[in-house]
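Known limitations

Structure tokens in this collection are predictions and should be treated as such. Users comparing against experimental data should check residue numbering before alignment. To illustrate the layout, the record for DNA replication and repair protein RecF is reproduced below. The input appears on top and the generated tokens appear beneath it.
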Amino acid sequence: MTLTRLHLTQFRSWARLEIQADRRPVAIHGPNGAGKTNILEAVSMLSPGRGMRGAAPGDQARKGPGVGWQIAARIGDHQVTTRALPGQPREVAIDDKPSTQIALGRLMRVIWLTPAMDRLWTDAPEQRRRFLDRVTLSFTPGHAEDALAYDKAMRERNRLLRDEIRDPGWYRALEAQMAQAGAALTRNRLDAIARIMAAQDGAETAFPAASLALLPGEGAADDPDAESIADRLAQGRGRDMAAGRTLSGPHRADLGAHWGPQAMPAALSSTGEQKALLLSLILANARALEGERPVLLLDEVAAHLDAGRRAALYDEICALDAQAWLTGTGPELFEALRGRAQFVAVAREGETSAMGI
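Generated tokens:
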């Protein structure tokens, strides 16, 4: 599916914005604070979850939580609207019919890379787990449902643990739910890693390939077998009760990455190598979505690459035939895309973002 129209109303710094797009990359340029990232965040809200900033709906309105916002888009042949009214959860409609965020994931696959993700390999495992789950969601939209089911059952189990409830019947029911959803989570993650690895093999690219692994952390968080997950949860009740929370399971998984002939751990690589590795995974993710045209959101990515690497990135994006939305402070950062991309200039006028000339 191709995103051909984006219309924002009272979203972040934009009182109103209309962009008509086509299959070409969209290069958005303007000074810092002009609202470039807000456009990419709006596109990311056309997928399940809280978007690339992870913000609550009430924090995304231009004038604060007392004002609602709306994003309308044309995706393929479908009209999509998502909005949040004051004090209300986010709503989704597809072709004027109420829908779910999960349905958005089946309609369009969105992959993003932000400057905050530059710290991915040195950050806490939670950040790498979120990254892996976003990748997994691009392949398996139902992954979000598995995650919700697992988290809901775990919250209930944690409540029992904190209240020191000892009735095994309550635990067995919740642990069975956690085991089924947790096994599905792990299978989805392992499948996503395998697809990324396969998409890197034999690809001619200027970015390094990575060897990825689902790290178990504590409690065999890479176990795809529901029965063994349930057994481990049952055996760990005493320890978990002392801690007041569930200490093992898929929610403790981590993503490991090594690259090069020396199998250099990503965390020990230079900043530039870590960035190149991230780009390699994003491109492999898009390449692995056979039969799909994913939307890539690359925020300020050009500023971290030299001219040669920028040109290589743009060539790969065009070769993928993926629709990409990129941001940068000036049009010169996208010079290698001249004639192959749609350029959009933005500026800041007082408290409101505006299209530039």
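For this record: The longest helix spans residues 168-200. The CA atoms of residues 205 and 316 lie 7 Å apart. Please report discrepancies through the issue tracker.
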